[in-house]
Amino acid sequence: MANLNPMVYVKLVCHQCNQKYAFDVLPVNNQMPLTVKCPVCRVDGTPAANLFLAQKLMGLTPQPAAPNAPAIPAVPNTSPASNIPDIYNIRIPIAPGINNNTPGTPAVPGTDPAADEWRKRALEAEVRAEQAQAALKASLAPQLAETLKEAVVQGLAAQRTELLKAQQTAAFEISALVSRLDELKAPMQDRLRSYEERIEELEKHLAERNEENRELLKMKIEMTRRQLETERARNRVDFN
Fold first, then answer.
1. Cα 148 to the center of its chain, rounded Å
2. Is the pLDDT of residue 72 over 80?
3. How crowded is residue 43: how many other Cβ atoms within 10 Å of its Cβ?
4. Pairing, β 8-13 against β 20-25
5. CA end-to-end distance (rounded Å), the chain
6. Are 106 and 98 in contact (CB under 8 A)?
7. Burial of 114 (0-12, 13-18, 19+ CB in 10 A)
8. pLDDT digits (tens, 9 = 90+) for 153-182
């Protein structure tokens, strides 16, 4: 995706002291991210920088704001006008901010065509900058929306991929655990089966022993009865 806000090399001319200065800046919302001032007279150059950025982003060749015409110092009046010869009645050339009729006298606003022209050009430049900014915002809004949409979709896709990987890992671990339980369960069942067979054998043996004991008791009882009969018969012979 293209970078929407590249570094821009800005060149300005101070309208106060005619100092030229330049700098690199990363625009924020197509404007200066901070205030910039002339390095010499510290006059605010942010509006001129914003205009430069607007022209740059519109594909125009930015033109540094033309400096004000230098002020011509007033001619000091050291003697009365009546004593000044006609050859010293100097007429100063027309310049913005200076009245040509009287040397050193500032021009009244609205009476100097050059100053009015500079003011008109500055206002037109500000209007063009605002229009360029509005047009730039209108053109960038759909692109920003599409970019955000793509970022959200890519984020969701990445999350889905991670969830699928986690699910596959969990399924593999569960399968391995079931296999281990089966491996442990088989020997245990064999041992339980052997214990059950041993118990059955012992019960069978015990039943056989009980049967043998029962036969022995019957034989003992029979022998005791025979001895008892023998003794009774002997006793009868003795009494007779």
1. 12
2. no
3. 13
4. antiparallel
5. 139
6. yes
7. middle
8. 988 988 999 899 899 899 989 988 888 888
